[in-house]
Amino acid sequence: MNLHYHVEGEGDAIVLIHGLFGSADNLGLLARSLKEQYKVISVDLRNHGRSPHSDSFTYQALAQDVLNVVDQLDLPSFSLIGHSMGGKVAMAVTSLAASRIHHLLVLDIAPVTYHVHRHENVFAGLQAVNQHTLHKRSDAETYLSQHVIDPGVRQFLLKSFAKLPEGHYGWRFNVDGLIANYATIMGWEEIPPFHGRTLFMKGQQSDYLLPEHREAIQRQFPTAKAHQVANTGHWLHAEKPETVNRIILNFLQTA
Fold first, then answer.
1. Taking every annotated instance into account, which residue ranges of this chain make up the domain AB hydrolase-1 (predicted)?
2. Neighbour order of strands in the sheet with 101-107
3. CA-based end-to-end distance of the chain
4. Which domain holds residue 220?
5. pLDDT per residue over 193-247, tens digit each?
């Protein structure tokens, strides 16, 4: 599995890992801030963006994909920043290469299994679009809007609606593969304790990181620190980019 990725800047390496339905560009505001001081590697996870599709979609496989990228770039050490599902991937990398990781930053996700299906309407909208051969993004939004009410969510999803090699437009991510693996995406298998520098960032209004997750975090990341970003939801890095970027830069500069 050779992931699509792009590299910006020079310095110590930082890998940015997007969440479900995303792509390397989703953390672009953060990449622009970091590339002034760091070498920033933004990846498309398998089944997303321009990376290959696969029926296998476990966190161990995703973590190995990321590790393969840093090995291809011949990077002996690196830091990881992951949002949502990408945060789980970043956490899983610690079980494969703990000694190589400088800093781990997890944005608004916990190392636990989530039992609520959060994306039924999204999957319904994606499948509705797939039932048609389309040549315009506006047509895709028409079908998507029948299931996804929030215009912001629609615009986020439509970033991955593009012209395919076959000539028509379609989703870059593997819709069927993500549906088939949704239980795994929402799940989690506990990993050995990682004692490196770790920061969990929570959006104040988000319910992805809750007090009931503290014990699971402490078991797996015993030295972790936490920071809550006021007046933000799950997309804290997009809602308050300057604040989040400042917090991240301060943490990366801790020895």
1. 14-246
2. 5-8, 39-43, 13-17, 78-83, 101-107, 197-203, 225-229
3. 34
4. 5-114+188-252
5. 999 999 999 999 999 999 999 999 999 999 999 999 999 999 999 999 999 999 9
3-state secondary structure of 162: strand
| Residues annotated as part of the active site | 84, 234
pLDDT in tens, 93-114: 999 999 999 999 999 999 999 9
Instruction: Kindly tell me the sign of the dihedral angle through the C-alpha atoms of 182, 111, 233, 115.
Output: positive
CATH of the domain at 12: 3.40.50.1820
139 and 244 fall within a common domain: no
246 C-beta neighbours (distance < 10 Å), count: 12
E strands of 18-160, at which residues? Answer: 39-43, 78-83, 101-107
Pull the structure tokens for residue 182.
Answer: 């949704």
pTM of the model as a whole: 0.96
